[in-house]
Prior knowledge:
Blueprint: H1 9-32, H2 38-68, H3 74-93, H4 95-98, H5 112-119, H6 121-135, H7 144-163, H8 175-205, H9 215-234, H10 256-270, H11 277-289, H12 291-301, H13 308-314, H14 323-342, H15 348-359, H16 361-385, H17 397-410, H18 425-432, H19 441-452, E1 476-488, E2 493-504, E3 514-519, E4 524-533, E5 536-539, E6 541-544, H20 545-557, E7 565-571, E8 574-579, E9 587-596, E10 600-604, E11 607-611, E12 623-624, E13 630-633, H21 635-639, E14 643-645, E15 647-655, H22 664-677, E16 685-689, E17 693-695, H23 702-708, H24 717-730, E18 735-742, E19 767-771, E20 777-781, E21 801-805, E22 813-816, E23 822-825, H25 841-857, H26 862-876, E24 883-887, H27 891-906, H28 926-941
Parallel strand pairs: 15-16, 15-18, 18-19
Antiparallel strand pairs: 1-2, 2-9, 3-8, 4-5, 4-9, 6-24, 7-8, 7-24, 10-11, 12-13, 13-23, 14-21, 16-17, 19-20, 21-22
Amino acid sequence: MRNLLTAKWIILLNTLPVLLLLGLCYAEFGVIQSLLPPAGVVLWSRFGLALGALALLTLGHGLWQLRRGRPLGATYGLGALLAYVVYLYLALYWGADLVPRAIPAWMLPTPPVFYLLTLLMPTLAHAMFVLIARLTPEEQPHSVAVNLGLALVVPLGWLLLIQVPGWFWQPAYSPFWEQLWGVMYVAGALLFLFFVTRVVYIIGLKKPGEWGEFGLVWKAVITLVLPLLGLAVNSGLFLNKFSAEDHGIFGNFSSPWFYGLAALNGLLLCLPNSTDRRWRLVQYLSRSALFGYTFYFFIVFLPFLPLSVIAIIAVGVGFLMLAPLLLLMVHLRELTTDYEALRAFYSPRVLVAGFLAGWAVLPLYITAAYLHRRATLHAALDYVYNPDYSKSYHLDAQTLAGTLRVVKQHKERSAEFMASHLPYLSTYFNWLVLDNLTLSDAKISTLEQIFLGEAQAESGPRRRWAADPTPPPTTVRLRRLSSSSTFDSGQQAWVSWVNLDVANTDTTQRAAEYVTTLPLPVGCWVGNYYLNIGARREKGILAEQKAAAWVFAQIVNENSSRDPGLLAYDGPSRVKLKVYPVAGRQVRRTGIQLLHKEPFVLTVDGLRVVLGDTTQARPAGPVATPGREVAYLSAAAKKQLPLVQRQPYYHFLLDVSARKGARKSDFRRRVLARLSRASALGQPRFSLVNTYAATLPAGADWQKSLAEATNAGGFYLERAIRQTLVEARQNPTPTYPVLIVVTDSLRKAVLPADFADLSSAYPESELFYALTPDGRLSPHSLRTDPTNEVRSTPDPGMPVSVRAWPDATRPLAYLPDNELADIVLKRSGRDLPAAEIIQGRWQTGLLLQGQQQWQVLHPEATDAQRVPFIRTSFRAGIMTPFTAYLALENDAQKAALHRKQEQVLAGKAALDVAEQTTEVPIDEGALLLLLAGAGLGLALLRRGS
């Protein structure tokens, strides 16, 4: 440990952490700056300048000592320790002024105080070690008993002060006594840690044969008994104070791996040192391999060491908080002894390389395991949400199940310090596997149903920071709907503003939310949005949809008077508007700009308004983008297309999911009975559906394939339907599929809310059918709620006329024969050029709409094209399903939105923004501390060289 006296350690353990700390705090300050009072801004500036000055003084002293070739002295250790402790104390004292309670917690998911406690701990620990090394010369004898006694004086003294009232105990509040007690506690904690650490250091100074009065028993207690006892106490094995759903005080260390590694580590450290150089090298490498385990628990408990005095007084086993510190020092001592013994046989470079290689074993293993989980999860998300229909998939369901369990654990919220997370490792998992995002409960349940056959039960009730109550019925109503329209001759389109005045019918209600849905016709885009906030009109910000929805929800959950408004797509042809709050007798006004090719009537909450002038309207002919990739066909233009009738055929989707093997004969009987009654529909097709959808070649022996199919996984019907519809849309033919599902329960199938985004693939009819045991075809809608049976409809074999585009000879698409406009793609099966800004906002909107339709047919391109598509939406100011308009009250909300948006855009498209805040506060800066630990071990190994 004396090698820590080298001044170069200041750069690693002080300068770099402080730079990181300043960067993190500056980023947080940038978000909340507009909400701080002037005095708060000044206070942030002073603390920032003070920390920068301390770091510069510390670095300057270190560089001066390096230049002089001298080690750090006791003066530095004492000075740095006192200076940074005073800084921390003042920061905690002024914490309520640095971050006032008026600032919403969601804007600062990790309070700056946790950054301070975590990133200044390496400096404090280093200063403490320097002080101990300087005050404990190796050439002088030192008493373990005396230092241990001095360490115990602190908790015993505090116990006496608490138990024996007197003039020192002042029950009445007083600022003076509050500060005095605080200073006394800090001083006592420092003295306690100083003497405890010094005890272990003195023990380490003894040579291997001089353990004397302590012997192997004390070594076993420190390296084996205390770690195992600490794990057991953390899990509530002895205290029995946790309920079933709690996982631990400081983290979820209940895995048998932690106990196994603790036992193995203790045995290796207690094992007598071999005199054979080969076995000694094995010992050295083995101890190096488990050094990462020891150091992990050291950094986990490092921020809590100042609380160890309280823990010892309040809980009899509180001394276990010191176990990682004691274990670290013993582990480093053993590695140093091995290193010095092996230097006679191996070069220092070989030994250092061996240590680094051993130290990297556990981190590399964890990284490899997390990368495997990431690859499995991303493959599953791609298969479900961004599939490549031309690709075959086979995923590791068990690894996926384990990954989903971890994700659910990370979303749990426990009381007080109890947690289901792994400190630092959970943050590493969230960063490496989840891109700092998460999965919604709905997506987790869907993945479990698809790959495991059913959603997995929770290990215990999930507790959150706040309850998720069902919102009461809204009393807000639309009072007035008005509009203004202008025809833009440059882009040959209408620009209309729709204004909504909303009010609360319950004037006693403090705050309520207005929610409504606006149906939009084909060829109509949202081009702007505003919300009146007080006396000003706040223009909406076009942002990434998930980030905007998250920020809106956080503001509403504050239950305050802050004003957000959100406008986002709620389906292919409708947008949802939310305004909050609408309170008392207040009338709120909000407005939406619509760009549309033709006049139309908009109905909102029963009120109607005409957009555009129908008396001046002329029938719009086909309109295409400059490259003619996307075309808009008005109802009149569509009527000019030729009518054709395509031949239907049955496409049976057979359920071969888990636990359906006994139903195969029944399914076979149903299909044969149906085919005997409706053979005129043409050559049938068959798909075997479980987790995957295998479509059999035309004319294949479907009965044999059904009998031989392995029943496994869930009934992922959505995949089979989408795969069939996409194939039909990309390769238009004179025939079309009539989808018939063969299962015993359609409600157990994995289905979406609708298939409205694929409406271009079923122009003849929006229906699919479930084949019942009695041979009846039960109709269901692809457009709305597929699980519910709809009323009686015409027989699926009846001819239906559709429009062929652009002609009947070589049609590129078939369109429904109705009075509605349509948007068609010229190149649905090939790459579509990336969306870009073109002349005229309406034309740009048409290109964006075409790009969106193309991505529905090619979801495998979503991750690659999503961000450029969103950026084009931003530049054009035209909302898409990937973006949303959000009106915010202040600059802090806007800064928080920008930060969350960048996080979402950097992650995978199928991942979600957290439903609740999931950060583990003290995990920030973990990588820096790990690097510091590696350097610490390396330096101690080279001691004396």
